[in-house]
Specification:
The chain is α/β, with parallel strands linked by helices and about 325 residues long. Helices cover about 50% and strands about 10% of the residues. Strand 2, helix 2 and strand 3 form a beta-alpha-beta unit. Helix 3 packs antiparallel against helix 4.
Length: about 325
Amino acid sequence: MTVHYHAELATTHVIIDVRSPAEFTAGHIPGAVNMPLFSNEERADVGTLYVQVGREAAIERGLQYVGPKLATLVHDAREYAAGKPIVVYCWRGGMRSQSVAWLLHTAGMDVHTLHRGYKGFRSVVLATLALPWNFCVVVGPTGSGKTTLLHAKAERGEQVLDLEAIARHKGSAFGALGEGPQPSTEQAMNLIYEVLAGFDLQRTVWVEDESRMIGTVCLPDSIYDAMQRAHYEVLFVSRERRIDNLVRDYGAFTTDELIASFDRIRKKLGGERYAAAVAALRANDIRAAVELALEYYDRTYDHCLRQRAILTERDPKTP
């Protein structure tokens, strides 16, 4: 029996991805667990045999690989399921998922395959991301508290899409500090979908202004282009308060970590300013280093404002 993907599937079923670990890492349904039928090397070997020799030879080789794993597959699936129904998927809902579903059904579990597999799920993702979302973009210079504002809006029940949390990166040369490994761009799209799927299309979705690249994650064209066309809310925050925010956010990191981040903007900062920033960090004067970094980031912010034709005037009295 097959089931069609829906946004609540992970809350009602245990979703098992039987593709290889490399396929799973590249992108998977949020909430799914990886129970690979083949390792990366085994999948490559079976695929090569299919192309060079034929389907029957590939199936026989696959059975040789899978045979010793059958008991483990059943045991692990039962542990994952804990009595809940199971949905198994592979790339297109083909032989891999159907074989595992048959095995688990034979072992007495309530198991289904996912119609069109991961490929079908991705079509849902792309269609959802392309919907006419009503974004409002929070704009402000580095250290103005854009993320803090978004979190406050979320606590008040507003619809918030935190792209930096999804990308596990704060979107600057210092953005990787304190973050784990970034997801692939494909998986980031899946995670964006997971958030948007729970939103009301008619209500505003608040999002922070971002470049197309957040670290190594590239925002999908549909989302990035919609953000460029969206309404903006500009934060006016004094330079002193911005510096306070950045010292608070980055002051706990080691001198070596901060210097490594400054290395990424060395050319754009300029040799003299870079050397002064490193000297300040080694002297444990993080505030002076932040002030030097802002000279670069404020120039970049001003350029972005001009590009977006946002005509604003800074008010130095604004806190």
